[in-house]
């Protein structure tokens, strides 16, 4: 053990070193405090902006698309977590709170909705809600109470709920029917939610909550019979109906004389002799689609057998399995419409396309799954006769199936297409094609290379060099 003198010396040395370091630390702390004081006196440029400018910037921070509004990762809630100044600006910006879109369960939903709608003040509200995000019981009633108090501010409403959910909402609001005021409502979208083993069986109730909606002009109904929703049908200008019976489709067309844009999807067969042909004078854009092949009986294209649309200029038939060419051509002959855009996506394959009077003004044509017979006849007429689709400017052949049949038909589209389009450019008295597209959703562009001749591709490269829009390959990559 070291002597007493040595230990005292070492102790004194260490104490002196500590005091020295403590003095340095005190000096550093004083300097740190001085720097903090200087920093506190600095106004960051973003905080020096007038609140009106900051508010305008905040409006450009709101997420695009259909994200949850009630999400702290995105504006407006994210902006409130940065600092007190930003929080105050966000709360004082009503336009940040005009969209209330919720897809996940939140137990405090009634309280959140109340605060959200109040912050929007008197601005028009866009509300989108899935009933499954509301816990059962009194929480739904509490939310509906808030919804009722602010319904006069709603300009866009989207509800996703089950048949029982619609019944509960309707029953609750029925007691306040005289107080419901949808005077700003312009866009209404109602979706029936079903379980895996459920069928489309909407309860036999009338949804009377929209009795007062003088500005309503756009409606979407999914799986809900239109006859059960008293609406101001006469004033609608756009209507979409999914999972409708054929009678429901005709019901809508007969009740909406001012609709100019209509999209329908039917799912059940009926005796054709049971219906009279419905003539609608105003429809300009009409879409028949089969978004879901419901129990293998999607019959959307059947609707064409029972309607006449003399004002039609855009017709889209999308992914239907029951497309019938005779029904289609009879529809065109009856309508004698100024058709400009035609898109037919039928997996049955298109065999022929008659150039009826309704097609004389056709400028845009899209055909999926054309047969080889169709391609031969179509391109032969296109190359030889200027009176065949004389206004055609855009031609597209999109395909979606992964099978070899589709991939095998693409070379013919390209081969006969290259020759015909080149010949068409020498015809007088007809418009020239400005765009030609052959695309596949399931094949990459390199998959086409072994199937296409260099001569055909060179013809298209020459057309592209002359200013024509050419795309041959996948949706994302072209070989030309």
Question: Can you characterise this structure?
Answer:
This protein has a domain of 118 residues. The model has no long low-confidence stretch (mean pLDDT 83). The chain is built from eleven helices and 16 strands. Helix 11 links the parallel strand 15 and strand 16. It is flat, with a radius of gyration of 33 Å. It is α/β, with parallel strands linked by helices. This is F-box domain-containing protein. It holds the Pfam family F-box-like.
Give the tags.
single chain; 480 residues; 14-stranded parallel β-sheet; two-stranded parallel ribbon
- Roughly what percent helix? 25-40%
Order of helices and strands: HHHEHEHEHEEEHEEEEEHEEHEHEHE
Largest sheet: 14 strands, parallel
Oligomer: single chain
Q: Which blocks of ≥5 consecutive residues have pLDDT under 50? A: none
Number of DSSP helices?
A: 11
The backbone outline, from C-alpha atoms, is flat
Distance between the termini: 92 Å
Strand content: 15-25%
Number of strands: 16
Mean pLDDT, all residues? 83
- Rg, rounded, reads 33 Å
Strand order of the largest sheet: 1-2-3-4-5-6-7-9-11-12-13-14-15-16
Structural class: alpha/beta
Protein name: F-box domain-containing protein
Domain F-box: 47-101
InterPro entries: F-box-like_dom_sf, F-box_dom, LRR_dom_sf
Organism: Mycena metata
């Amino acid at each position: 053990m070291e002597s007493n003198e040595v230990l005292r010396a070492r102790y004194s040395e260490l104490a002196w070193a500590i005091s020295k370091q403590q003095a340095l630390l005190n000096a550093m702390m004083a300097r740190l405090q001085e720097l903090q004081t200087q920093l506190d006196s600095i106004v960051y440029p973003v905080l020096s902006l007038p609140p009106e400018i900051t508010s305008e910037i905040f409006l450009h921070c709101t997420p695009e698309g259909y994200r949850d509004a009630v999400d702290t990762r995105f504006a407006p809630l994210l902006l409130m977590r940065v600092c007190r100044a930003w929080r105050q600006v966000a709360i004082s910006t009503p336009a940040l709170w005009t969209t209330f879109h919720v897809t996940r369960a939140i137990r405090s939903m009634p309280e959140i909705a109340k605060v959200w709608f109040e912050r929007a003040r008197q601005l028009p509200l866009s509300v989108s809600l899935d009933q499954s995000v509301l816990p059962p019981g009194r929480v739904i009633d509490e939310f509906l109470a808030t919804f009722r108090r602010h319904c006069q501010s709603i300009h866009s409403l989207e509800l996703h709920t089950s048949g029982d959910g619609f019944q509960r909402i309707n029953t609750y609001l029925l007691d306040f029917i005289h107080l419901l005021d949808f005077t700003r409502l312009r866009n209404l979208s109602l979706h029936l939610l079903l379980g895996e083993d459920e069928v489309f069986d909407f309860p036999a109730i009338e949804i009377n909550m929209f009795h007062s909606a003088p500005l309503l002009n756009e409606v979407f109904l999914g799986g809900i019979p239109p006859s059960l929703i008293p609406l101001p049908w006469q004033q609608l200008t756009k209507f979409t109906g999914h999972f409708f019976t054929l009678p429901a489709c005709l019901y809508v067309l007969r009740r909406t004389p001012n609709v100019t844009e209509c999209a329908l999807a039917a799912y059940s067969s009926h005796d054709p002799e049971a219906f009279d042909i419905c003539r609608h004078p105003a429809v300009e854009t009409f879409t028949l689609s089969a978004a879901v092949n419901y129990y293998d009986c999607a019959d959307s294209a059947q609707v064409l057998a029972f309607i006449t649309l003399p004002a039609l200029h855009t017709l889209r038939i999308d992914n239907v399995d029951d497309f019938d060419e005779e029904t289609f051509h009879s529809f065109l002959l009856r309508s004698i419409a100024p058709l400009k855009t035609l898109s037919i996506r039928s997996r049955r394959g298109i065999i022929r396309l008659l150039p009826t009077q309704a097609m004389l003004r056709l400028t845009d044509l899209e055909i999926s799954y054309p047969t080889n017979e169709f391609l031969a006849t179509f391109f032969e007429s296109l190359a030889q006769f200027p009176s065949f689709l004389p206004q055609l400017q855009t031609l597209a052949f999109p395909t979606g199936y992964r099978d070899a049949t589709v991939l095998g038909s693409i070379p013919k589209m390209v081969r006969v297409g290259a020759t015909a389009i080149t010949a068409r450019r020498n015809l007088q008295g007809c418009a020239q094609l400005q765009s030609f597209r052959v695309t596949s959703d399931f094949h990459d562009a390199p998959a086409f290379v072994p199937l296409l001749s260099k001569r055909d591709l060179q013809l298209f490269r020459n057309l592209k060099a002359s200013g024509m829009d050419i795309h041959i390959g996948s949706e994302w990559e072209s070989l030309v």
